[in-house]
Structure formats: C-alpha cells, structure tokens
Design goal:
- The structure is a single chain.
- The protein has 289 residues and is an alpha+beta fold.
- Helix content is 48%, strand content 21%.
C-alpha cells in the first residue's frame, strides 16, 4: 500500500521575484542579442525565456485543510499540506484533495432486520481524508467508495439486530441507539481504512417499518408492549404479596389459616394486576358462611 509522505516546498513568495527577474533579464538579453544579430545569443535568450515561463507553472496555492498530491510521470513524490503560495517542479502533477470534514447521508435503504421484518433505514456519516496517498491511489474514487461501503455496512448492521425488543438487555435498532451507532461507526471504519478515510461519527437518521407491514407491526408492537407490561406487573404483584405474607407471619396480632391466606392472595392479585381501580366491597358475613 502507498502511504502518505509529507513534502516541503519552496515558498512562492521567494520564487516569484526570482522568476520575474529572470524573465525580465531574458527579455533584455534577447533585445541585446537581436541588436547584435548574434544567432546563438538569440537562441539562448529564447530558451531562457521559455524556461522561465515553464517554471512559472510550478506555483500552487494550498488552502487551509487542503492538500496537493504530487506525481512525476506517474510516480508518487509526496503531499503538500502547508497552506500558502508554494512552488514545486512544474513537471509535477498536483492533484487537489480536500481534508475538510464532510457529511454523507445515505438514502432510505429497505432491508430485513434480525427477525426478518422489512424495515427502512438511513444513516449519516461524518468523515474526512487522513491519508491522501491511500485516498488517491488505493481506490478509484474515494468519495464514491465512501458512499458504496457505507450503504453496505448499514445493510449488514440492520440484519444483525431486531427492530425493537422489550428486553432491556437485548440490543435493538430502536432501543439501543448509542450501541448501534458505535457498532455502525466501527464497521464503516473497517471498510474505509484502506481508502485513507477516518470516520468521525455515524448515526442512524431514519428508522421505520416498511409501509407494507407498518400497520400490522404497529399492532404487534402494541401487543408485545402490553404483554411485557403485564409480565412486569405480575412479577411486582407477586413480590408484594410475598412481602405482605412475610410481614403478617411475623406479626402476633393477626393469625391467618391457609384458606384465609389464599383468599387474601387472590384479592391482592386482583387489586394489583387489574388495569382498573378496585371497587371496595363491604363483607357483612365471614369467609366460612
């Protein structure tokens, strides 16, 4: 792999007056050679003037957060990163590469999640070029490479996680945004490392069920949420009943036989698990009548 090599260049503000002086001197020399009708001197003056004009093509402006990749007849010679007016050999090919931070937002991709449900997903990736040599020489077009590999990583990520999960310990696309974003960033970075690109941030910007199953999955999601909530309610109610029985067993003021314990447990579970407020009932008899 071709790695970046930073190269220093002569400041253009030093070379500019030198080349201008050479150009003026060559013109003066040519004028004197023409007056003297010296053919050799004329040719030398013309060659000097042409060489000076060619050297003027070596000037290049390097803006902040930009770089220039230098090539000489196809061979990589280094990268200019120092901002300002610079001068390098006029025979160098100077390719411009931006080092600024860029955003890429993928289109809405239709993929199947871990459970096989079709979902629509999109992501935003913040990236920048950190190795200009790899970006220019290792891939054909690094901007298009970022786009294709990002969409491929998003598809792969969506297939590894379910859209939603009511289990807090299970990672899902909707419920574990921070974890999923970190996983997406690492996966995209692994794919783009060869192109000299650093992924600064990656996050999901759009997530929804596909339109053809959105209504059905919404009802299923609501049912799953109700079941999960009921499970929590029952679990909490059983714990409260156990605590009540334990406290009553330690008390010397109330003595309950097994039948009364069963009735109390039944009443407590009805009150605690019901989705409506309990209606008080005055019992005028006894449990055994």
């Amino acid at each position: 792999m071709i790695r970046e090599r930073q190269r220093s260049a002569i400041t253009g503000w030093v070379m500019l007056p030198i080349l201008l002086a050479l150009a003026a001197g060559a013109l003066r020399f040519l004028f004197l050679a023409l007056q003297a009708r010296d053919v050799v001197a004329v040719l030398a003056a013309v060659l000097l003037e042409v060489a000076t004009v060619v050297c003027l093509g070596g000037f290049v402006v390097v803006n902040p957060n930009e770089a220039r990749v230098l090539q000489l007849f196809g061979a990589y010679k280094g990268t200019l990163r120092t901002p300002g007016l610079r001068w390098a050999s006029p025979f160098y090919t100077k390719k411009h590469v931006s080092l600024r931070v860029r955003n890429f937002e993928s289109g809405k991709l239709k993929v199947n999640d871990f459970d096989g449900n079709p979902v629509e997903i999109a992501a935003v990736v913040v990236w920048r070029v950190v190795d200009t040599a790899e970006a220019v020489f290792e891939v054909d077009n690094f901007e298009n490479y970022v786009k294709v590999q990002t969409e491929s990583a998003i598809r792969n990520l969506a297939s590894r996680y379910p859209y939603d999960s009511h289990d807090d310990e299970k990672v899902s696309l909707r419920g574990s945004t921070a974890s999923v974003a970190g996983d997406l960033k690492h996966e995209i970075q692994d794919r783009l490392a060869r192109a000299g690109v650093e992924v600064i941030e990656a996050r999901i910007s759009h997530l929804a069920y596909a339109p053809e199953i959105a209504a059905v999955m919404l009802r299923r999601q609501q049912a799953s949420a109700i079941i999960a909530a009921r499970s929590r309610i029952v679990e909490g109610a059983v714990g409260m009943v156990d605590l009540a029985l334990e406290r009553l067993a330690k008390s010397s003021h109330v003595q309950l036989d097994e039948e009364r314990k069963a009735a109390m447990v039944s009443n407590l579970l009805v009150v605690l698990c019901s989705d409506r407020e309990a209606q008080p009932v005055v019992n005028t008899g006894t449990l055994y009548q």
